[in-house]
Amino acid sequence: MRLKRITTLFMSTMLVLPTFLVSAETDDGLSSEEKAPQGEGSYSEKNEVVYATLDGSGDPKDMYVVNNFTIKEQGEIIDHGPYSSVENLTDLTEIEKNDNNIVFTAKDDEFYYQGNLEGKPLPWDINVSYKLDGKKIAPEELAGKGGGLEIQIDTAKNKKGEESFFKNYLLQITLKFDSAKYKNIQAEDANVASAGKTRQVTFTAMPEKEESFKVNALVSDLEMEAIEIAAMPSSMPIEKPDTGDMKKDMKSLSDATEEINRGVGELESGIAELNNGVASLYDGSEQYKNGIIELTNGSSELVGGSASIKSALQKMSESVSAGSGDVDMSQFKQLEDGLRQIAGGLNETETGLTNLKNNYSKAYQALDQSIQSIPAQNVSEQEIQTLYESGADKEVVDKLVANYKAAQTTKQTYASTKEAFAAVDPTLGKVSGSLNEMSGSLSTMADNVANSMESNDINESMKQLEEGLQSLSSNYNSFHSGLKEYTGGVQQLAGSYEEVHGGIASLTNGTDELENGAGELHNGTAELAQQTADLPDQLQKEIDEMINQYDKSDFDPVSFVSSKNEKVETVQFVIKTESIRKEEGEKEEKKKEKEKSVWERFLDLF
């Protein structure tokens, strides 16, 4: 009986309460209807919050917008939007919907109403895909499964949506995982945080960027809460960083690059000088080689002629020593003629050696000057390593180093053999002097023979002639032996010098390539120096452009619902996918809903 009376009283209160709320008098004795504003109202700003539900793959399902107005003057206000239905969230007054015009009466400082949308495209295309143990799987098949899970979320511009939101809004994508079911969660470029037993993974997609994000984890008995996507304007102004120290470092780099360029320029000049010196060296070496070959070719004739002279002197000496008292005067005439012919041959040989000596001297001077023109500056291994690390073309640097080493090797080899080269010239002079001396002796002997024939003092003259010929023949034997040794040495020197001259020829080709490579290297370092000359300014420019790209503080919001709406202060998007639950859980939730009391359902209305 008591329960029946309480139930009757509660129902009576519920019937009277709406009338009481609408008709209750205020403190000054006037009803709410009498206090309701009359005429046209106005508002200072409007805010929109767009709520969208996506299926497990990211395809749109439901969408509604909560509109909030900050009332400036109470009264009738008109809003715009292609809503399928509207609902007053502020009070119990009716909202009039006339096509795309929404008319309501605002009586408080704030007014809220909800508008449901159908077919309105979001500014972003959102695609969510799943893989389990490397195989694609539909979201509705995931519940209760286990294994290696990969979730990929792709965001792109929706060509049918409002472009200004894509250009100025950033997306914050949040996934929540139960730590008891998800292990070894990996998400590149994400912020991973713990909230109790939940691991929260958050990605950020910047304005105007189409992004792709991945989460990998090991899961058992899979269930997952909805993926939450919040879109908000990137309206926070970005302060310019202090780049003073960085610009100083860049200036140091720029100066160092310029210094490298100057050093490579000096290197190029030095290599050009080296190349010119090596070219002169090659010319001098060519002259020297031709002279030594000419000397070698004449050596056999010289030795042959000397052998003939030696043989003639020996025969003459023997003939004179074996002569009898009866002297044939015609033989003296032949002896005189023979002596003069030998003296003439020696004079011709001496003239040839003198010419050879002069040519060799010129060739040797050219060779010596060319070798001396090779720069003697020593380049350390550290300096070579610095050149490699300067960013220059490695192939060009390899050529530089190889030719530098070849030039230094040539210079050192010449220094060790210089005495041998220098000894040739005085030796030729001595040989030439000896020939000249012997030629004079033979001429004197021929004169003595002639004088003896005229004075008829034959016996005394023959005795002097015999002694002179024996002495001359003996001395000439020693001269001939020395001449053979000398010509053998010249031939050996000529054979060895062929290799030296070949090396100098290779060195010439190498330094020529080296000069070209150094020119290319200098062009490269000059371009690098030019490119890095204003590096600090370029750095500041890049930073300014980057800041301007992401600084959207000058963005003027527009209505998501209708371009006719004015005074829009903010537009926010709250987007969620469907959660993934096992069927048993869904049944239990439905069962709990059925078990709600009358009072709980009544409270749900508010």
TrEMBL record:
It comes from the Bacteria. The keyword Signal applies. Residues 32-46 have a biased composition (Basic and acidic residues). Keywords: Signal. SUPFAM superfamilies: Methyl-accepting chemotaxis protein (MCP) signaling domain. Residues 1-24 form the signal peptide. Residues 27-46 are annotated as: Disordered. This is X-X-X-Leu-X-X-Gly heptad repeat-containing protein. It comes from Thalassobacillus cyri. The lineage of its organism: Bacteria, Bacillati, Bacillota, Bacilli, Bacillales.
